[in-house]
Records
---
Amino acid sequence: MENINHLYWRAGFGLGLQEWQDKKNWSVQRAVDHLFAQAKQHSQQALTKDTFAVTTPSMSDAQKAETRKKERRLVVLQSVDWIKRMASTEESPLLEKMSLFWHGHFACQSKTSLLANNQLNTIRQHALGHFKDLVLAIARDPSMIRFLNNQQNKKLKPNENFARELMELFTIGRGNYTENDIKEAARAFTGWSSNLKGEFVFRPGVHDYGRKTFFGKSGRFDGTDIIDMILEKRETAHFIVKKIYRYFVNEKVDEEVIDDLSRQFYDSSYDIGALMRVIFTSDWFYTEKNKGTKIKSPVELMAGMLKSLHIDFENELALVFLQKSLGQSLFNPPNVAGWPGNKNWVDNSTLLLRLNLPAYLFNSQEVNFKLKEEFEAKQKNKVTRRLLAKVDISQLYSLVKGKALQEQLDILSQYLFAQPPTISLPLFQRITRGKTEEEAIQLQLVGLLSLPEYQMC
């Protein structure tokens, strides 16, 4: 049971109650096969948005400003839709988790909902495919092109932003290229642009067709050639595998395992799905040192709560406020390096909100939302919002009603935690004394979800 919980927290966002009851006694192999089958099915389904607000040259400045305001709102609502999809038992948890990982890896601020939607579709399509296809698709993605200024990358005035981040953050890592490699790579990506419709276009008139020298080789290279040459280096496989290991397995890497996985990844032509299968079916993935060691990101925390409990927010922006306050707003990473993760998720500005969030949700309390960056800058601004939420515990109540308190706590812990914590029975006896059974079970849930161990997976 613990192995299945561990798998579904790392390869997804935990399990819904009915899922947990159905799958808790599955073998790891059966669960992994099911996860990948779901992902394959859903990766072919493109996400669509009904509404986009698009500026046109004929608009006045006031109309353009209003349209951009609408776009910003649509982007944040899109982030809410995505979190709800992560929490849905009708979706593929593995595909959404891999998409979240790549969203942080290819960190990009999407300014419009059209660009955000299209980039997420691109990531979902290639999230478990071949890394080369994913990198090439991201290089041609209009949101990334605009974010890293490749619109301005022209023959007579190369812009090095994308070429630099492609190597430093997206593929091979620092120390494996030279400044001249960046300059030559930038020339190769000249003319890779986008149009007003948010589509990739190649502009031959501004492309540099001259000879370039990259990684010691000379030729009339374009961007595709550069990506191929980067992937020819085994250092690229090592860089990507190490980052995946730290995200899905443990922040403290096992270099021997990394080396082995890197060889397999390189030899498979960078097959992401094959790599993840090896990780999720390896005995070392389920050792005690790799369980309960990862601090949930804000998005993982929110999606996990939504999945475990039936929560209905009256205010659709509640999940937007929580993203900002906890320090992880989808489609708006802090910079091109993405979110630093792990211990950086928890500090003085977020810990109390994380621990008190269950009580706020169950009691629809008012919360002083203070953005992480405001806290760090010691600014006084606060936005008070009421977390109007309805939490339906009827299914969980049916699961444990009529049982002794210790047994109720054991069952709820087995369900809610990747690895059940040590629980003080006297504490829960005190907080539930004199309550009806349903009230007592609600208090148990608040208490369990408020434990520091719930922040881990």
---
Amino acid sequence: MPRSPRVEYEGAVYHVMCRGDRRKAIFRDDHDRNMFLATLAAACKRAGWVVHAYVLMPNHYHFLLETPRAGLADGMRWFQTTYTARFNARHHVCGHLFQGRYKAIPLDSAHPSYFGIVGNYIHLNPARAHLVPKDAPLEAYPWSSYPATIERAIRAPWHETIRFLSAVGLSPRAYAASMARRLAALRADPKSVVPEWKEIRRGWYLGGDDFRREMLNRIAAQTAMCRRDSYSGAAIRAGDLRHAANWFNKALDSLGLTQRELQKRKNTDMEKQAIAWLLRKSTLAPTDWICQQLSLGHRANLPRAVRLFDFAQDPKRTRLRQIMRQIQD
């Protein structure tokens, strides 16, 4: 089954999240929660992880996790398998505990603001889920890194607060005051969503354009020797589009055209159809994207153009197909 590629490198930082199977609870009581944290502590020791923020929710968890030695996948495999075995043994059950693969979104740790965005999102999770009693402070929820971050609970050895507090530019006391204001705003308008949180929920990375390019290069290198249909997800689709854009530019150069010049031509233009044929035959770019780049009009024009070049007999189409095949080589 196709899967999203795991981007692993030394010093990577991720927002890691996983839900219970069928969204069922992954904790039945506080003993389970302590067992989960003990398993996390062992995983950090084995893999060399550093946890900058975390929260345990009834049916899922979140980590802001750093991997100084890389090895996210191996560490997560041991961690989730071990906790599942311990949970099942304690409750005399069997089968899966977690829902599919965990989610791991790499973030640009060179820009401290992303630490703050993800950390605040994690720390406010209990409040958004109404797990913090009305009028109680955020630290009233004990199964989070927040109480230790503001120095109102004992910090675990594997939980690091210095880098996170430096990223938000606040002392523990000032951070507590800042989060109290955020909590009040959330309670005043429970439907309010910070724009950056949409990226956390839906994106495949968190960072600027340079970081996106870096991640795409890492993914391309990682998947270069693998079958394309072994992978799926937003990161792979972004790589497909970048690959298609590269071929599109090569085709324009080979014909001595600019994109603007090509778009002004009719849909029956042979050079426009030749590039359409190349992109359809040699890339995984979506039909709508190809039609948009070429200004090809209705999406039905694409398969029509491809058929004309698949069975080309006239000299001009034959010559253009040869030029496109040189690009393929």
---
Amino acid sequence: MTESSLIELARRGMLVTIELAMPILVVTLVVGVLISIFQAATQIQETTLTFVPKIVAMVIAFAVMGPWMLSVIVHFTSSLFNNVPVMIR
């Protein structure tokens, strides 16, 4: 395994990680900003008001994006396993 193939493998792994994490992070960020604006407008400073909607939004995002996320990780893993003989040389 050469340095360039190892670097390429690490780069692909990081890109897949970012690609899988981004939808959940964006949903959580948007919900957090909306809740912060609501709290600033109403001056309600309840801590559960920030966590519960974020958790619900994350669960919904996982339910909606789950099949796509699974296909991305399965495709990456299968291509990784298929390239093992090439990487060993």
---
Amino acid sequence: MTGTGSVSIDSVIVVGASLAGWRAVETFRAEGFAGAITLVGEELHLPYDRPPLSKQVLAGTWPPEKAVLADKKRSSALRVHEVLGHRAVRLDVEGRQVEIDDGSLLRGDAIVLATGASPRRLPGTESLGQADGLFTLRTLDDSLALRASLTAVDAARVVVVGAGFIGAEVASTCAGLGCRVTVLEAMEIPLVNVLGPMIGAHCGSLHEANGVELRCGVGVAGIRRANASPAGLEVELANGDVLQADVVVVGIGVVPATEWLTTSGLTVDNGVVCDDRLFAAEGIVAAGDMARWMWRHDSSEEQIRIEHWELAAEAGVAAARSVLAGRADAPSFTPIPYFWSDQYGIRFQVLGNPGGNDEVKIVEGSLEEGKFMALFGRAGRLRAAMTIGKPRQLMGMRPLLEAGSSWDDALAASG
């Protein structure tokens, strides 16, 4: 089966029943590929959306099925061979073979790697699990189990470890369910490494404004089962304080799910290292949270890995098109990253790739109003824009980001 370029392929394996993986599947068919597509997924579920897991599904305002990206009917229509409930354990790059956990081998002319990422765990908590009240939130089953625990106790005591976007969303949802919530953050200011101290402090202030206790600059020394009744957990802080909790949610980031690729020969360094076309090797591409690709922009380039819904979706499409075009003819993947976060009835939207050390200037509105647009500059260039309550203004910055606008020109254009 010939792709859009000079590459001839008859079969594709997509490893990872994720957003990126599913968008790749859809794109292969949309681009006219008529060969065999095998989708491998560790979970028994077909692909679903993850953003609602910390919000609508956890809150109970959406039934789980509303989060699905693909049902059996859609999968059948796209002629997908499903291998679900099985984990990929080894990749043979030369032979284009994927070994799964039951020992069977799958072979394809091309392989899309989209196994995503796994939540970080706190050291010393290996003996604790959901039955004890300790959670991470990554899968649909995690969200449903967490909701069951939160609603099993009136005004449940919840400790959220980590005030990043996921931690903040979980805290917001738990507060909305009537829980008594404390958020612990190791840094002195939440999100300071992404949004800088001024915007990070504003994000942190939303917790207290909504009845959630935020404690910054505190480390967690350990989590253990409570000895006293009622049953629950004790969170010991580095300063010696002990917090009682019915539920503890750990949201301290994720790591790329690449452990199964250690013997593959691919370059794995904070993700699968890819070129600007998402190729990790001939005939093998990567997309989504596990991919670290060469992003070319502003006449420069950098290896970058971004954990955003929008980017995963775009990368899945681009990865499939790269396979069909072939490495020599595939275009560079040069998106403008976009992400959003919903907390306490407020939507944060970010366009570009901000960093904690960027120059930040509020060009519309104000922190006091709670509606504003902030621009982020680095090395004399516009790097990102962030808004609360100003979506139209945010999208107006896209052409400037695409054009590699200078910082001065961006400030002038927004004035």
